[in-house]
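New to this. Explain these tokens.
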Amino acid sequence: MNIGDTVPDLLGTDAEGHEVRLSDYPDKKVILYFYPKDNTSGCTAEACSMRDNMPALAGAGYQVIGVSVDSAESHRKFAARHSLDFPLIADTDHTLVELMGVWGEKSMYGRKYMGTFRTTFIIGADRKIERVYLPKQIKTKTHAEQILG
């Protein structure tokens, strides 16, 4: 998906089994960030950047929602371990990652595999994408500060 595209209201199910909808946050811009895997160094740094900057993000009118293809149980442990106070969608069937265009072939040490490209979408209250941060643009340790600009 690209800037100007409309994101569906229903995003998926969080770690607690609740549906997550954009309409749950009618007066907020949503930071919908996709990350490869719970409890890896880069993904943990990115999640903690969001957590540590939550007062500033909320003050600027943002709601943070994280997404990976990990299970709800993995998300619960990840959130508890790092005191994450925002929803984590367990996209185990790859519906949202594929819809948003962030699932594809990756390569590490010459081995090819399918995975999630670290990508962040800023979505307005009208459900339209306002900004996209691509994998090479994201600095995991300071991603929230990047968004706050």
About this structure: The chain has one domain: 10-141.
